[in-house]
């Protein structure tokens, strides 16, 4: 009888030890897997507004010193489309801004003054950038156009043209939300030379314009 009781106690002890061993060897629960946040997708259409400053230079083939440097504020709109391949972003954009870039002086003091104006400035460009999640540094270049005007104020003769040329630039864009981005940009415009018939006495003059633009803006991405 004693042996039976001792055997029972031994079985119970072994069972308890085995249970304790199972408890100590049980693996710790796995930590929940958290998916990394998705990188921002730059692909899609967008529209926006911008504002900034412009400074430029006018020159002519008749009065070498009549025109010179000038500066002005500007404001306009833009629209475009981006397509992202891995981290590379390619796109096209068109923009148009109103400005009042103007310069001039008297060629005959108190009698005859000549003036030049750049009223509208726009471009249609290709953009290429490298996406760093919500940041997009980029370069751009393409076709430029602007409405320029030359006039002799005292004789009330004037002529305006849509001059064309080229532009290059660079900028940095930042996505604030899924749909809202902001950017800062520098552009250089060369509108070439255009002929202006400003009076029957003087005839046609050639007016050349180059302009620098620094601007900031907001885009809404669809």
List keywords for this structure.
eight-stranded antiparallel barrel
Fold and architecture overview:
The chain is mainly beta and 222 residues long. The protein is 11% helix and 68% strand. The chain has 1 helix and 8 strands, in the order αββββββββ. An 8-stranded antiparallel barrel has the order 1-2-3-4-5-6-7-8. The N terminus is likely disordered.
Can you lay out the helices and strands and say which pair or pack?
Elements: H1 2-25, E1 44-60, E2 69-85, E3 88-108, E4 112-130, E5 135-152, E6 157-175, E7 180-199, E8 203-221
Antiparallel strand pairs: 1-2, 1-8, 2-3, 3-4, 4-5, 5-6, 6-7, 7-8
Overview in brief:
The chain has 222 residues and is mainly β. Helix content is 11%, strand content 68%.
Oligomer: single chain
CA radius of gyration is 35 Å
Overall geometry comes to elongated
Mean pLDDT: 82
